[in-house]
Amino acid sequence: MYETILLPTDMSAGVDDAIEHAIDAAQRYDAELHVLYVVDAEAYSSYPGDEYVHEFEGLESALENAGRDAVDSIAERVGDAGVETQTVVRHGVPHEEILEYGDDADVGLTVLGSKNRSGEYRRLLGSVAERVTHMSARPVTVVKTPVETDDVSQ
């Protein structure tokens, strides 16, 4: 049914359950699993002024290296399960890059990890998973991971 499955990661705790789900789906459908990390351009470009140029480059490089480490770590885990894997690091707005990659790679299914947070939190901040789910023309599975917190507003 699916030849290519996409697993975007942001290195958060909400991705762990999604990794297992994506591995299981890839095994069931004998599909290739693509692991994607998006270096969020807004994270390093939101500072005004030339005095931050060197800091941008350092932050962007650090985020890219962290992303590379994340996809490589997941790929190793996926490889141990006998699933063919590709790793990709892109730069941009996360939900836009995920959707664009899905089209570029003709992805059959996207598996997203999401922290299970309250509706108030989501209304205030939104989520990449929510945007991808609403905007994708392709099948998307969201795997929620409960988040323990002392603050009930989260």
Q: Give helix and strand order, one letter per element, not per position.
A: EHEHHEHEHHE
Number of helices: 6
Structural class: alpha/beta
**Which strand order spans the largest sheet, edge to edge or round the barrel?**
3-2-1-4-5
Major sheet: 5 strands, parallel
**Helicity, as a percent range:** 40-55%
- What is the straight-line distance between the termini? 37 Å
Low-pLDDT parts are: 150-154
Please provide the count of β strands.
5
Overall 3D shape: globular
Report on this model:
- Helices cover 47% and strands 25% of the residues.
- It is of the alpha/beta class and 154 residues long.
- The chain has a 5-stranded parallel beta sheet, with helices on both faces.
- The N and C termini lie far apart (37 Å).
Question: Main traits of this protein?
Answer:
single chain; 154 residues; alpha/beta; five-stranded parallel β-sheet; 5 strands; globular; disordered C terminus
